[in-house]
Write a structure and sequence with these properties.
Number of strands: 0
CATH superfamily of the largest domain: AhpD-like
Strand content: under 5%
Largest sheet: none
CATH class of the largest domain: Mainly Alpha
Number of domains: 2
Order of helices and strands: HHHHHHHHHH
Length: 192
């Protein structure tokens, strides 16, 4: 029988017996590596196969070696999530941004208003484009890519940037819709 845990989601949260084996392997791997299972892994696993499909793409974009640095991908996550006011993603990816940059102040500023963070030119261009594509996708034109090229981004990096922005806009909406609550561990992660 599934466990009812309204403290992390507005929907029913499945138990181990309710999810595919791939989900339980991911839960176990996360618990071993992080010391906890991220609430997003528990709540979205309500539809196990759909969750695994999302996770495979998310993991590829955000956690694997790519064309952008880990810190740049997490910057995008926090900018987009802050604009969308997605509590779960802002808190959890703020923790990851702190980890990859070692900077607790900038991560917090980016989460509230990235313009108040003293970002280097390249990161500022990334944040500006992430905000534009998040707030006004109907206004985006090919000319909006020029500032990214001016800071040295190539087409592979720009494509990855766009994909990460899109992933977080989708994920923010899912997390917000189900009332996903961040794990307590994220609040203190990488603050010392």
């Amino acid at each position: 029988m599934s466990e009812q845990t309204p403290d992390i989601s507005s929907l029913r949260v499945p138990g181990r017996e309710d999810v595919p084996e791939g989900v339980t392997r991911l839960w176990d791997k996360s618990a071993e590596a992080m010391g906890f299972v991220p609430n997003v892994f528990r709540a979205q696993a309500l539809n196990g196969d759909q969750f695994l499909a999302w996770w495979n793409y998310f993991n590829l974009l955000v956690n694997k070696e790519g064309h952008l640095s880990n810190a740049e991908r997490e910057l995008i996550a926090v900018v987009v999530s802050g604009i969308n006011r997605c509590t779960y993603c802002t808190v959890s990816h703020g923790a990851a941004l702190r980890q990859f940059t070692g900077d607790t102040v900038t991560s917090d500023l980016v989460a509230v208003n990235w313009r108040q963070a003293d970002l280097p030119t390249r990161e500022r261009a990334i944040a500006e484009y992430a905000e534009l594509l998040t707030r006004a996708p109907d206004e985006v034109t090919p000319a909006d890519l020029e500032p990214l090229r001016e800071v040295g981004m190539d087409d592979h990096q720009i494509m990855e940037l766009v994909q990460v922005i899109g992933m977080f806009n989708m994920t923010n909406r899912v997390s917000t819709a189900i009332g996903l609550v961040p794990n307590e561990q994220y609040h203190s992660h990488a603050r010392s």
